[in-house]
Specification:
It is built from 2 helices and 3 strands. It has helices at about 30-45, 70-105; strands at about 5-10, 20-25, 55-60.
Length: about 110
């Protein structure tokens, strides 16, 4: 079963995704080994040094399933949604203009 270690360092970020966060895939095959590997990685990053704040929090997670997202498909879907919104807005403006002209010139 795969494990992920997530380490976080507090501090300012400028709104960057994952700012101050590092995710590491552990090679361990059981929780005890994952614990030991995580502690070693945290130590390698200076996180166990009491005078250093490179790692403020850390957790490791068991990954039961991995579901990859098809980013090409998702981006295409978003593009099609935006296109429909633009088309709907253009049609609403045309209909409003039609109604305005119809009222102005009759019929």
């Amino acid at each position: 079963m795969p494990y992920l270690l997530v380490m976080h360092q507090n501090g300012g970020c400028d709104y960057t995704i994952g700012c101050g966060t590092k995710v590491v895939e552990l090679k361990a095959t059981n929780p005890k080994r994952a614990w030991n590997e995580a502690v070693q990685i945290i130590d390698d990053h200076g996180g166990l040094d009491p005078s250093d704040n490179r790692v403020d929090t850390a957790s490791f997670f068991t990954i039961a399933d991995e579901v990859r997202l098809d980013m090409t498909y998702l981006k295409h879907q978003r593009q099609m949604q935006r296109l429909k919104e633009v088309e709907a807005k253009a049609e609403a403006e045309e209909r409003a203009n039609y109604e305005r002209l119809k009222a102005k010139f009759g019929k």
